[in-house]
Amino acid sequence: MSLFSWTLAALLLSLVLVESQRTSFPNRRDCEVVDLVFILDRSWSLRSPANFQKELDFVSQVVSVLDFENSRVSVITFSDDADLNIRFSDYYTLADFQRAVRALPWVGGNTYTHKAIELMMTEENQRSRDRAGITSIGVIVTDGGSTDPYRLEDVVRQVHDKRIEMYAIGVGDEVNQKELEMLASSYDHVYLLKNVNALSQIQDKLAARFCRGTPAPSTQACVNKPANLVLFLDDSLPIQQYHQDLSLVTDLVTRLSRSIGRSHKFKLLPNWFQGSVLTFGNVQDFLKGVSRTNVPQRWSSTEHIVEVDLKPGFLNIAVVIGANSMKRLNQSLDRDASLTYIIGVGQSFRRDLIENIVPSSKRLFVQTLGQSVETVKELSLDLCSGCSNMDIYFLLDTSNSIGPEQFARECKLAADLMKSMQLPNGHSPITTIDYSDSPELHRYADSPQFIATIPSHKWRGGNTMTHSALEMVMAASERNSNDKRQVAILMSDGASTSPDRTEKMAAKIHNSQLEMFVVGIGENVNLEELIVIASSPSHLYMEDSITPTHLSEAICNGATDNNIPESNQDCREEFDIVFVLDSSWSLRTEKNFRKEIHFVTELGDNLQLDFKRVSVSVITYADQAKEYNFRSKNEFSSAVLNLPWLGGNTYTDRALSIVLENVENRANSVQSTVERPLVVLVITDGGSTSPFVLEKVVARLKRFKFVKLFAIGVGVSINIKELGLIASDPSDSHLFMVDDLEVNNKILKSLLKSQICRDTQFLSLISPPKLFSCPADVDLVFVLDSSSSLGVVENPDFYFLKEIAFVIDVIKLGNIDFRQSRVSVITYSDVIRLHQYRSETDLVSNIIHLPFLGGNTCTDIALDLMLDELNYFKSVSNGRKAAIGVILTDGLSTRPESTSSSARRIHDVGYRIVAIGVGARVNINAITDMASLPKNENVFLLDALNWRTSFLSTPPQDITDCSEPVDLVFVLDSSWSLMSEDNFAKELQFVTSVANALAEQMGQSRLSVITFSDDAKMAIPLTMYSLTSEFTKKVLDLPWIGGNTYTDKALEMMYKQFDAFRTRGRRSVGVVITDGGSTDPFRTLSVIKKIKEKGINMFAIGVGMSINEEELRMIASSPVSEHKFMVENLDGLKMLQRTLVTGICPGPIKKPICRSEPADIFFLVDASSSLLNQENFAKELQFVVRIVDNIIVGATPDDSRVGVITFSTDATLEFGLSRHTSNRAVKDAILALNFTTGDTFTHKAIDIMYDQFNKFMRRSTRVKKIGFVITDGQSTDPNSLRASIDTVKALGIEIYAVGAGDFDSQELEMMASDRSKVAQVDNLDKLNEITFKLNLKTCT
């Protein structure tokens, strides 16, 4: 028998370990069932049939992992035309498919890629009918750009709409990368290869995607550890046994190759297997070929190979089949060589013989596939040499979204990590890149220098330009390209300002030698971006769940458990959204406008908008703006795609003016207790044509606490300053810039979704429901709808039971005392039933048994019975107690006009009605009609009402009893932004002046001072000093600290102090003085929520130009206009002393000179260019304020309401009748108005006033409707003005006309109700002369 008949020494495999793998998947054997389409370029640019054949070989290799019993594969080739060469239904075995693929011809021609995509869509439409629910994946391989790119772009959109997962592989130097990115589902689905030979480098990645059970490359950190793998094969075995054992060897080698790296190579001796090198990509085919071939014929040149295989100093691994091979193994060993592993394969070897041959070696036995898996795990550990040979780069986020405290944690983690890694002497330099607006590179010679220096890195602030840091680290890695492993560790919260560039750079890095580890920093991490950046999911870790030791273990020795939370949070809060889309000429082509449209539809899908509960609209703008509203998802998805491109100038202000008008109308109409958040997303590619008008519109929009503005700049002509103006604070979380709005920009969509979810969650904290303090002696009448319109088919009494539960909640949470109060319940449909209860136990035990009646909705009769019951309660108590009626209904009355009349009768008597909408389809107009004024305090939706007794709140008192002791805490900003100790001293002087002014009025009150910067300090506790000179001295001695502005820490300290020293009979008052926004606004919001729930009365004072007005609004108690103040500098605090003292202890209110009948009054104020400047406009405003001084403004039926409309070229509803419920709030709002300029279109203001009176008219005939028109010139359109005035007068509105300056007397008389209501002065300075005259007229 020849040497080959009893031993077959096969293959020397020297493992050259170049880079570790990015992807690690669960160890599952089952492949995913997929339908896979390959689209292959066969054009002339391939240059030869051999290159096309390499494409076909690539296809054969990738599909070898698929389960052909369930999955389907088709192939399309294209050049001048496209051919469907293999259909899904053509082949059902792998061998047949591979044979057919390799036979496909090369054709040549141009590169009409769109034809191939169209053919794929035709096949997909047929497939989706037959194979619904099966994942559809497309893989396109091309070496050049499309001959017709415009038609390609159109058809690719259809592919993405169909949700086909697309991979795009570009080969060679002539590929169009942007086109590939358009074709692919995301940037990490794009591969750029130097030539067709490199296709084998990515086949494992694709195979691992299609078949998760495929032995995928791991994160094992193998670094150039030399090893020899020798196979000893015995062909004397029975042929069946031999093939079985060889299949185990094939599986073992394949798993080992994939577990330690895709680019390791097998080095072979000359004349071996038709060449000198086998890669792991084709060794499997080689081994399969061995199993099908007569072995002696296959290896004719193997003599003496084994004698040089096993070497000292190497990790030597012998794989043995058969007893005869073990003898040959013994003969082949070098004298000094030692085998680390001997692996016996199959059933035919003897264990005792192995142990005798090499007793010092580790012995493993593989007889099953399961043992093969375990063997590979053990081998992989020895093949890895840890952290001994690598270049390390740290990328540290130092932007605004991180903040200084979190940046310091990044530096500490980096230092601790290097300590844990214990790198040897002579290690490569360590590189750090700190990045925000721009990246900053530092290099350190060794670990000790790095560890000593990194803590001194300073937080810089700014935008989060992650892409620039990635670009810098990739360039540095390429310069250092050598045999060393390249490892980067990025620490960030994933809030890129340019997310599309970040995504592109991450894709380039994944095609390079650089390995990316990512650590998420902070609480609000955007996982989607971090996942895209990380080399694999197992390269991603969270700061709060990883220690330096574990991270070191992951980098040096492979993945550890990373405990990554779910990627994107769901938006739990309900919100409305408006998309504002640039449709101007600056877009250049309609194609770019279509990109905006498709981005919006994709984002809408990500947000999972529920159109039954959410209002969605789109505003497009150029010279004019147009609004589109959508009632369903289907309507939104289809109609928005057909919106026209307008072309024209970029009047962003006109689009946002529509939003502002809607918001103001909403604010002046009915709302539930908690205002529903409104998200406004503005997409633009350039600066606004009228930036000054835009600034004013945005400023007014930002006054509304429930509005959040997002700004997305697209392209190269972005006006960053304007985007910053539009975006809500913090602007770095609401401003984004992208080069192009491609549909695969998933980081941007993820960032938007995450921020929208956070915003809508925290907006509810800004205006929480009022804390209730239920009167001890209130009488209640509940009216419960029990009609069929309320019923649900499956559960007819579903909503009726909710009504009953509501009543029980009110009685229990409101602590109703039945010894002093009376409670009745009326249920109604066709039948009306009255139920009276004597005690809480009586009510709770009996109300749950009330039957659901069904039938018509006779709300009018139920309201009449409510009026009778309220009258009875009033007569019994002799009018000493409040009596409230509460009706729960869907508003679908059988007789709506009669219902309105019944509600009006109750209003006229003066009883309060709270109307609560119940059910899935509430008629909000009917509910509003029934409720008392103010509507926003008496109209609710049951499902949105968390505080059942909010309508029982004790109304705020106009006068605070100053004799009641007060605990007063001053919270003073002591941060760097104050600039100097002198400025901090001005804060202290203000505190002492306020304290001295209060000293005589507040008796046994206590004062405290808290200062804050990086930390909060209890400078003066409540228990230390009263209102004495000692307190004043202590305050003036307080030091300036310096540091960041952690307002949340000071508020938390104040909250805990109030909680610890709370005493019955003492009011808690806090005064916050700051000159900037909080460093951690979200934590500040969380503390504010607790403070408001505690009922602490908060005043907020902002100083300077860098204040965060929205944060001040959040801190301030209601009404905000009486608790929030702003001054230009610290010297301006002196002006606030009296105001603050009055707010803390107001004393008696000065009564107006007359008490008129209640009136609804609109002031129409000229703001046109004829006024010349803001100073003259202010004279008009002062005139209006003096009139308001003599009106009782309030929320009761006996009080008046005031609204203001300004007009020039356009008219603006500055605030409506229901917005402000006190004289001070109205006056503050008036004095804050801005001058606009333009023509004098008075009729537009008249039209708005008519609409407002028509929509929000009070029913009582006692309430007058009055309009004051104040103008300094003639109307630009007198004919339209006359028509508008006639309409208003027909509604019974009383008009006063005031002219100052160059006015038209005849026009004033035409506007006024009669001549007695016309007032004229020569100039604006003389408006004071007619104030008293007008006051007398309004007080008659």
UniProtKB/TrEMBL annotation:
InterPro entries: ECM_Assembly_Org, VWF_A, vWFA_dom_sf. It holds the Pfam family VWA. The keyword Signal applies. The keyword Signal applies. Residues 35-206, 391-564, 576-756, 779-959, 967-1140, 1160-1334 form the VWFA domain. Keywords: Signal. Residues 1-20 form the signal peptide. PROSITE patterns: VWFA. CDD domains: vWFA_subfamily_ECM (cd01450). It comes from the Eukaryota. PANTHER family: COLLAGEN ALPHA (PTHR24020), VWFA DOMAIN-CONTAINING PROTEIN (PTHR24020:SF84). This is VWFA domain-containing protein. The lineage of its organism: Eukaryota, Metazoa, Spiralia, Lophotrochozoa, Mollusca.
